[in-house]
Specification:
13% strand, 15 helices, Rossmann fold, alpha/beta, 323 residues, 44% helix
Length: 323
């Protein structure tokens, strides 16, 4: 259904150029039928983009930037991802590859952008994020923002793993106990699969909500992430390291406690650790997280000297700078 409708739109609008998402490779074919130039946009960073191409085109050859490494567990996950999505190379490398737009900035990824250009013989143009959410005052968020206003500067951590990712029951328990053991203030957005009816009290450790009291807020609904990250009480962000969340954290100058799960997230996490704006929660050899490690990392960032060091790295203009 999308192709014929898109074709009609092109016929009516007659644009001079079409920028299409790499996830929709069919769009270029439709555009070519109308003799309109098309440019691909990749909604990720250059570190990920170059790592993927090195992985695909130089199998077994080590990526030339040692900061971007993946442990064996993550390498296995990547191989499995490529096996499940055999068209991923075509989506990345297919079509008009003379010019590709990347949602990043030279301020944070200059050497990875240059590697893309040299290795792929490709002109890569950083264009920043596709859009930025405006920070608005919603009456539905008033209680949450008022609660944040009662906390000291940089004393609170925001915990959110994106709009689609749901933690396993085991990981949710470790995160909960990690937050409890850390003794820091927090806002935690706990998401569940759309087809599952869940009650927070049934999923969280018994007595957790009572024990944390006024120190934390656990939400099972949408939260205004940009507004929360921009609040002076927020001193850290436990994140899965999706690219949009990474860019928002850089924009607002909030250190990240990285807890990547899958796909691009492990590489994004390595990048921001390299930039000096994040600490990654260390997993065991089987890829599991543990409450003690979460708690110690949290305390380092929120109440320790590490947080001051991370907050001292200013990339607040990086998101808006395209070149």
């Amino acid at each position: 259904m999308s192709k014929p409708n898109f074709s009609k739109i092109l016929q009516n609008l007659k644009p001079d150029l079409v920028i299409y998402d790499m996830l929709l490779p069919w769009a270029e074919h439709v555009v070519n039928e109308h003799n309109i130039p098309a440019v691909k946009i990749v909604t990720s960073g250059a570190a990920l983009f170059s790592y993927f191409f090195n992985f695909l085109k130089n199998p077994g050859v080590e990526f030339p930037f040692p900061a971007i490494y993946l442990p064996k567990v993550e390498q296995v996950k990547m191989r499995e991802m490529f096996e499940k999505e055999p068209d991923v190379e075509d989506r990345l490398a297919g079509g008009n590859m003379q010019i590709t737009l990347l949602c990043t900035s030279r301020t944070i990824e200059a050497k990875y952008l240059d590697y893309c250009t040299d290795f792929l013989n490709l002109k890569v143009i950083p264009v920043g994020p596709p859009f930025q959410d405006s920070i608005t005052n919603d009456v539905d968020d008033k209680e949450l923002i008022d609660w944040l206003g009662t906390k000291d500067e940089n004393s609170t951590v925001f915990v959110c793993f994106g709009s689609e990712l749901c933690l396993s029951r085991e990981d949710m328990e470790e995160v909960a106990f990690g937050l409890e053991l850390s003794n820091v203030n927090f806002i935690w957005v706990a998401r569940f699969p759309k087809d599952e009816e869940q009650n927070l009290e049934d999923v969280l450790p018994k007595g957790f909500l009572e024990r944390i009291g006024e120190r934390g807020r656990v939400l099972d609904k949408f939260a205004p992430q940009p507004r929360i990250l921009n609040h002076p009480s927020i001193g850290g962000f436990i994140s899965h390291c999706g690219w949009n969340s990474v860019l928002e954290s850089l924009d607002f100058g909030v250190p990240i406690i990285a807890m990547p799960i899958n796909n691009d997230q492990p590489i994004n996490a390595k990048l921001i650790v390299e930039l000096g704006v994040a600490m990654e929660i260390v997993r065991d050899d089987d890829g599991n997280i543990h409450r003690g490690e979460i708690a110690e990392t949290l305390k380092d960032v929120i109440t320790g000297e590490t947080g001051e060091i991370l907050r001292g790295k200013d990339y607040s203009k990086a998101v808006s700078q395209c070149q």
